[in-house]
Design brief:
By secondary structure, the chain is mainly α. The protein contains two helices and two strands, in the order αββα. The radius of gyration is 16 Å and the shape is flat.
């Protein structure tokens, strides 16, 4: 079982990673791909917010 300190440490790591990605995204805004996705140097891909596309993806999701 994780202790509170371990949980806080993990959340801090995730927050740092998220903040770094947002800063990177702001600095390199023109780097969006044609499919409205952006791939970071670490390989993580984000998609531009699109409620219609997101609703279709949710409807077509397995399970």
């Amino acid at each position: 079982m994780s202790t509170n300190k371990e949980l806080i440490d993990e959340l801090n790591k995730e927050l740092f990673d998220l903040t770094a990605k947002v800063i990177h995204l702001i600095r390199y805004y023109p780097g969006w791909d044609k499919d409205d996705s952006y791939t970071f140097p670490d390989g993580d891909t984000w998609h531009r917010f699109d409620p219609e596309r997101d609703a279709k993806a949710k409807d077509n999701a397995p399970g």
